[in-house]
Design goal:
108 residues; mainly alpha; 3-stranded antiparallel sheet; binds iron/sulfur cluster
């Protein structure tokens, strides 16, 4: 993904049609009142306190640290429109589910 181009296009679209995401920041659609959460997102770094997603880093309504990373204060209740499930969590969950299903088959 060419994030620079995507961000420029998104800014242009928002300027043309207005905000896209309700109750969220205009650019990244970041909000802090979920049942949704950042916690399993692959962009979450630094022990769950920062986000390295390009649109989040370009969003002027989001707070950033001195490295430009978006500051995440409540990963269990925050999220944005660019959430990407962490592949390792998915693989781990699938492995756990498969083991549990096999155990149940062996018990019956
Ligand atoms: S859900 Fe959005 S804000 Fe949260 S870590 Fe992922 S990309 Fe960043």
């Amino acid at each position: 993904m060419d994030w620079k181009k995507a961000i420029a296009g998104l800014k242009s679209l928002i300027a043309d049609v207005g905000p896209l995401w309700p109750k969220s920041t205009k650019l990244a659609g970041f909000a802090s009142n979920g049942p949704y959460h950042c916690a399993n997102c692959e962009y979450l770094v630094k022990d769950g306190t920062r986000c390295k997603q390009e649109v989040m880093m370009a969003d002027s309504e989001v707070e950033h640290d001195k490295e430009g990373l978006a500051i995440i204060t409540d990963p269990e209740h925050q999220c944005c429109e660019f959430v990407e499930p962490n592949k390792l969590v998915q693989i781990g969950s699938e492995y756990k589910r498969a083991r549990s299903a096999r155990r149940k088959r062996q018990e019956s």
